[in-house]
Amino acid sequence: MQQMRVCAVALPLVAECDCGGRRREAVSLWEGQREGQKKKQIPFGKANKKSKCRGKSKCRGKGSSKGKRKGRVVDRSLGWKTGIACALMMAAGVTAVAQQTNGNTNGSNVPDAPAPTAPAPMSGLKGQIAPGMGMPALPDPDAQQPAAPQPAQQKPAQPSAPAATMQSSGSGLDSVQRTAPELPPAGQGNQAVVTTLRSYTNFVVVPVTVKDNKGNLVAGLTFRNFQVYEDGQRQALRLFTVDPAPLSVAFVIDQSLTQDVMSKVNASLGAIQGAMTPYDEVAVFTYNNGAQEATGFTGAQSHRLEAVLALAKATGRDEGVPVNSGPLAGCSISTNGNCSDPNLQVGRSAGGTQFMTIPKEIHTLNDAILLAATSLSRRPPGRRRLIYVVSDGKEYGSKATTKEVIKYLQTNQIAVYATLVGDSARWVEGYMSRFHLPFQMNDNILFKYAQATGGSLDSERSVNGIEKSYMHIAEEARTQYTLGYISHQPLIDGKYRTIEVRVDRPNVDVTAKPGYYPTAQYFR
Question: Rounded to whole angstroms, how far apart are CA atoms 27 and 21?
Answer without folding.
Answer: 12
